[in-house]
Specification:
The chain is α/β, with parallel strands linked by helices. It has helices at 3-15, 19-25, 45-48, 52-60, 86-100, 130-148, 165-176, 179-184, 186-201, 205-219, 223-247, 264-273, 307-322, 336-348, 382-404, 410-430, 442-445, 453-472, 491-501, 503-513, 517-536, 545-569; strands at 37-40, 70-76, 79-84, 114-118, 152-156, 277-280, 283-286, 296-299, 326-330, 357-360, 365-367, 438-440. The protein has a four-stranded parallel beta sheet, with helices on both faces. A hairpin with a 2-residue loop joins strand 6 and strand 7 (283-286).
Amino acid sequence: MDFKKAVAEKVSGIAGLDLETVNRLIEIPPQEDMGDFAFPCFALAKTMHKAPNMIASELAASEELKADWLSRVEAKGPYLNFFVDRGAFAKEVISQVLKEGLDFGKAEDGAGKTVVVEFSSPNIAKPFHVGHAFTTILGHSLSRIYEKLGYKVVRMNHLGDYGTQFGKLITAFRLWGDEEALEKAPITELLRIYVKFHEEEKNDPELTTSARENFKKLEDGCEEEVALWTRFRDLSLKEFNVLYERMGVTFDNYNGESYYSSLIPGIVDMLREKGLLEESEGAQVVKLDDKKLPPCIILKSDGTTIYASRDLAAAKYRYDNYHFDKNIYVVGLPQALHFQQVFAVLEKAGMPFAKDCVHVGFGLVKFQNMKFSTREGNIVTLEDLLNESVAKTYEIIKANAETRNSGMSDDQLREIAEKVGLGAVIYTYVKAGRERDIIFSWDTMLDFEGDTAPYLIYTYARTKSILRKAAEQGFVPAEAGSELLSKLSGDEEFACVKMIADLPDAIRKAAASNEPFMLSRQVSQIARAYNRFYNNCSILSGDDEEQKRARLALCQSVCDSIELGTYLLGISVVDQM
């Protein structure tokens, strides 16, 4: 039973408003004494020709709003406050979680619809730094969230594999490349020769000429240059994929910028035929004055393409091949103007999918009193960040294990540290609104009592431990549909049940706003509510066996909810710590 929907149906029937409008207006009160659901009566003032306060009072007294699943309905100012019957609510919610397990929150909102998510998109031959982690983690989480809601998701890795830098790399490799180093650590070697090229170029203009010639040969499809470029690309991807596999990130398509070069002439011809291309200082542009945007350059004065022309070609390719209902670009906020221009050009060109293209921007990455043993000078690579997080996590859990005499082997501790350490980094990117800058701090990230992944994972592991102890003592959780679940009506129990009940709505909100933090916040609230329950209520002690089984069912539901929520964020849990 969907209690919010049931309340909406009650209000709709008595107020004469359509169900969709009522459902949208219903709020969750900020305080428990205001009820579980609240309907603001302002929307009825015009049709009922009365003050909202008076409307609320009259409706609260109506027999039509009574139900066995409602304990009472009260008017408080202009609000109609609904108090659900705690026992009925707990039985319904916990039964649903016990039945569905990790399928809890699964929906068919996106049935028959396709979402394309472009994310990660690192530059070939360059280090995968912490900035790339932002798009990778956000995109990975959004992909899982949309899949949870029934969408078909196409994960696109729009690699930065095109441009004049590849002419420079080809020249540099022929002059200074080390074959053994390239095979062993491709990105490190390619970065080394790329930096050397720029140092030498200052005193040797012939290098610049050589690089331009090599890039022209690459564009023309010359065999040797294409073979070197392909090798650089494949070796870089091999190194990137080690990181992707470590984080559980996958892609359906790796078409980089180079892939769309052959499609750009078709875009240029289409824009010209529609009368949208104009010359401006030798360049071909589409003017966007009507959108209050600067002109979008399609071809530079020398006839070469830029990011915008390649993104226009990529958008059309994606629609032609995937017929997407939404095309999401998880790219940093500094590119906001670029995407406004690209989407505006698509709209002016009459592309039907222009309105379905969405830029999901994010902030910057900063560090607070953190030191790294970086391989790339002042570049903080994601691998360095993950390794240090795992190493620091290992020291923490090893010390705790020794204190508790847990008996876990070093291999077990390292496996746990890997998951918790990675989770700590991932959660830092999704714990707040994506447009806010990320400030990394070891003390904050690895706080087992703060708003962190270690706190969530520890809560999960501790709850699993309780369930194991219960099984050893012969106690099993109450089953779905059991009347025992109605016993979960105490303040701490009910607060936890309510947080679990709101999880499916948080998943929907995360998708609607492309904000994983809507979900991370809810999972954190579930863990907080559970720990208050854990600290204030006896679970396995006492003589009331029915209450024990009901509370164990709550524990199982918390485990499923945390595991589900962290999975959608891209984080793994562990059964013991």
